[in-house]
Amino acid sequence: TIAAAIVIGVILHAGNHLACDFPRLINSTPDEYSHYLHDFGARKPSYMDLVKGPEGVTGILMVICMAIAFILATKWFRRNLIKLPKPFDRITGFNAFWYSHHLFVIVYILLIIHGVFLYLVHIWYRKTTWMYLAVPVLLYAGERVLRFFRSGFYTVRLLKVAIYPGGVLTLQMSKPPQFRYKSGQYMFVQCPAVSPFEWHPFSITSAPGDDYLSVHIRQLGDWTQELKRLFSEVCEPPVAGKSGLLRADETTKKSLPKLLIDGPYGAPAQDYRKYDVLLLVGLGIGATPFISILKDLLNNIVKMEEQADLASDTSSTSDLSNGSNESTAPNRVSPKRKKTLKTTNAYFYWVTREQGSFDWFKGVMNEVADLDQRGVIEMHNYLTSVYEEGDARSALITMVQALNHAKNGVDIVSGTR
């Protein structure tokens, strides 16, 4: 929308000058041109003189820079949908999109110069282009400087790395003491070994109560592809008898790449605690913010059950003791410790096209099945790439799935309980 508005503005602005102002000026009579003597002098400029002037050159250069950024931002180039031969393949992908958008620095400089050389205006305070640019430039520069210092403030240490089917990289890192966040929020991640300038946002998949931070990153572009390749080189091959995943941790012989983080940043999902009933719907890797919410709900459920058991044990002990003072004192303390959970039900719907995707969050789903005795969390997983409804093969898979779950309590498709 913003890019389209800029295109419309450029067409109207440039078209007005090229099709109206320039022809009117070069075709003006001597009497009419006398009003422009203080701008152009005694010699009337030609059309090319106006185009080759500071205003024309800066305007053309701005259009070229914005056109480059606009083209490389389209989905065909940004998502590598267009396969170009080497070395032109480097002008596609997210990196090309990211770096081309920094041409705005040149555009802003040219815009200030373009605004200084105004026709028919020589009063300095009317040349106010720099005033309109000062505020957004200061805000942008302040944000970049703040991120630079915050990334150095939050030092993290990689604890575990795993590469799952579907090109998903899981990074588990230490949580800085000052890093406080809510489930549903996201943070920016930078890997200097991949690019010292690029920051990419990822939803936090760990819960606030966990003693670590985790993110799940799916390979979708050139930056994530290079990040996955970098960690694949330091991961150890699968061990016999364990899952066939590439893994690495602090005991790995090869040193793990350095990571910088910035955040957390707010997102709509972070206000889930305000509601009694939650409906969480995720598609593929888009389920990551809801995984953090499920973990947080589960942690609160476990804490409440532990507090209830503690209160029950304390009450039983008090009943066996002699004296009314001893029996009533613990009951006055336990309500203060009791932590209530507003959410009564949470429904999680996850739709994915690949069976291997269920490995991404299998541990969380199994924990919910084991620890959520009250049935607060209800999970529904859908695999859309099996067969269409009504197909004989789909019916057979459904039947085997039901039999295996009834016998062993494990779903054969997702591998979860």
UniProtKB/TrEMBL annotation:
Localisation: Membrane
Keyword rRNA processing listed: no
Alphabetized UniProt keyword annotations: Calcium, FAD, Flavoprotein, Membrane, Metal-binding, NADP, Oxidoreductase, Peroxidase, Transmembrane, Transmembrane helix
Bilayer topology: Multi-pass membrane protein
Residues covered by region (Disordered): 312-337
Presence of the UniProt keyword Calcium in the record: yes
Molecular function as annotated in GO: metal ion binding; NAD(P)H oxidase H2O2-forming activity; peroxidase activity
Gene Ontology cellular-component annotations: plasma membrane
Major place of residence: membrane
Residue intervals passing through the bilayer: 56-77, 98-124, 277-294
SUPFAM superfamilies named in the record: Ferredoxin reductase-like, C-terminal NADP-linked domain, Riboflavin synthase domain-like
InterPro entries, A to Z: Cyt_b245_heavy_chain (IPR000778), FAD-bd_8 (IPR013112), FAD-bd_FR_type (IPR017927), Fe3_Rdtase_TM_dom (IPR013130), Fe_red_NAD-bd_6 (IPR013121), FNR_nucleotide-bd (IPR039261), RBOH/FRE (IPR050369), Riboflavin_synthase-like_b-brl (IPR017938)
Compositionally biased region (Low complexity): 312-321
Family under the similarity heading: Belongs to the RBOH (TC 5.B.1.3) family.
Protein name: FAD-binding FR-type domain-containing protein
Source organism (scientific name): Gossypium harknessii
